[in-house]
Write a structure and sequence with these properties.
With about 475 residues, this protein is an alpha+beta fold. It contains 13 helices and six strands. It folds into two domains: about 350 residues, no CATH class; about 110 residues, no CATH class. Helices cover about 65% and strands about 10% of the residues. Strands 1, 2, 3, 4, 5 and 6 form a six-stranded antiparallel sheet that branches. The longest helix has about 70 residues.
Length: about 475
């Protein structure tokens, strides 16, 4: 028994070190990808180091659902590939220990990891997402002049919409500026167009000064004392300027934290119980709404009046139509056509509405299934990596990294296809979220069966040779 325990410890040591190493490397790379994606929202905001570290910490916590399965796959290939490369696997098998027994300690470890992944995804991940995206919201609203994009209306200033064609980040000069000022709450009654402009914050950080050059201002003069005269005359004011300064108050310029409760209703910020409640509530609300709309349409358009007849008396539409005049018949036919067209439009709109409702509910269902998929993904990645490493018998990080990337890329692509199909309401949530797991599981079962029976991986040379022969033959036929 002591020898078996030492074997378990040896296998765990061979697995845990590459697992931790690949986990931190993968998380770091994904974090750099996150930084590259949101670099424009972070640069030039004057954020404190504490805020940046907090942002990266919550981002890293959210990336675990991608880095952990890949780490398990790479570590399992490395562990069993290294043991096969150094003939340790052969020595253990020669002592009468089967591959299943060799895999047992890591199976137990990954079962524990699977349940731990679910607990993490259900409790920690919603909290980290909540803090991450609430913090990102605050960061994006810091230094609004840095968030102005070319060719896009900027809404970072309350009741003001601003659009520019281009800007020079070195001089902070913006060109072809258009401003819609809604601070009077009267619609698009004030528009300013300028050739160029600069923007800066006052020293007390309480206001934003926009300096405009060579432009025109258009304004509707509103006379609220006599609305009738105003509607009739519509007075209008226009003036040109060479330089003009516009002041916008920034009461919340200093970096402040938004109440996280404003974001907690997002599907990514909820656990399984909360998602169940949201799914049930939305389903019932949508059903009640659809029933109410259908009843109203049916009553108002189909059953507008009730025909009176004696009990037991049969009514023949042909008899009734023969008694009507041609004008009355034409009127009835036109009304029937209108009702039919209205019904058709209602049915088409109802179908589109049901699809939109299904998409809304599917977003919640995707997050519900994702809590469970993470743990199962870690488990099946082990059953792919461990037998594959035992079959290839290659040590080092070269082979594990390459084949881990290939297997995980296959899993990731299938997952993205499934999630997009579910979001489009084209397939059920169960199929879309679990068919990537099933496909990888089939690959894992196949590789495990080969490893247990000490068979080698099928060679790709005959397959590649056949493909190359067909391509050469096709090329020769085209040349002839």
């Amino acid at each position: 028994m002591l020898g078996i325990k030492k074997l378990d410890i040896f296998i765990l040591r061979s697995y845990l070190l590459p697992l931790l190493l690949t986990f931190f490397v993968t998380t770091f790379l994904l974090l750099m990808q996150f930084l590259w994606r949101y670099i424009d929202d972070l640069v030039g905001k004057g954020l404190e180091l504490k805020v940046i570290l907090e942002l990266f910490c919550f981002a890293a916590m959210g990336l675990l659902q991608m880095s952990l399965p890949l780490s398990v796959l790479c570590a399992s290939i490395f562990a069993y590939g290294s043991m096969g490369d150094t003939n340790e696997l052969i020595a253990i098998k020669s002592a009468g220990v089967s591959l299943g027994r060799i895999m047992r300690p890591l199976i137990i470890f990954n079962v524990i990891l699977m349940f731990g992944s679910f607990i993490y995804a259900n409790n920690v991940l919603p909290y980290s997402n909540l803090r991450l995206w609430s913090l990102m919201f605050d960061v994006r609203n810091q230094r609004p002049e840095m968030n102005i994009k070319e060719g896009v209306f900027f809404d970072g200033i309350e009741q003001v919409r601003l659009k520019i064609s281009s800007k020079n980040t070195a001089t902070n000069m913006m060109y072809d500026v258009m401003i819609y000022d809604h601070r009077t709450s009267a619609g698009n009654t004030s528009v300013i167009i300028a050739d160029s402009a600069t923007m800066k914050v006052t020293d007390d950080k309480q206001a934003l000064v926009l300096t405009l050059f060579h432009g025109k201002s258009y304004e509707d003069v509103i006379d609220r004392s006599d609305p009738a005269v105003y509607r009739e005359r519509r007075p209008f004011r226009q003036y040109s300027f060479d330089k003009q300064q516009v002041l916008f108050e920034l009461e919340d310029y200093a970096f402040s934290r938004t109440n996280v409760d404003l974001f907690k209703h997002n599907s990514q910020m909820q656990n399984v119980m909360q998602l169940d409640y949201m799914i049930d509530s939305l389903t019932l609300n949508f059903k009640d709404h659809n029933d109410r709309v259908f009843n109203q349409f049916f009553i108002n358009n189909i059953c507008k009046s009730k025909a009176e007849k004696n009990k037991g008396e049969s009514v023949s539409m042909d008899t009734i139509m023969t008694k009507l005049s041609p004008t009355e018949k034409e009127s009835i036919v036109l009304k029937a056509l209108n009702v039919a067209r209205s019904s058709q439009s209602f049915v088409i709109a109802a179908i589109d509405n049901n699809v939109d409702q299904a998409k809304s509910i599917n977003k919640l269902r995707i997050e519900w299934h994702r809590k469970f998929v993470l743990g199962f993904a870690c488990m099946i990645m082990f059953f792919v990596g461990a037998p594959f490493g035992a079959l290839v018998k290659k040590g080092g990080f070269g082979v594990p990294v390459i084949f881990s990337f290939i297997f995980y890329l296959l899993y990731y692509v299938l997952t993205m296809i499934g999630e997009k199909s579910v979001k489009a309401a084209s397939i059920s949530t169960w199929v879309g979220m679990w068919f990537p797991v099933v496909i990888i599981l089939i690959i894992g079962v196949y590789l495990t069966n080969l490893a247990i029976k000490d068979k080698s991986l099928p060679s790709l040379k005959p397959f590649l040779h056949e493909i190359s022969s067909k391509l050469l033959a096709k090329k020769q036929n085209l040349n002839n």
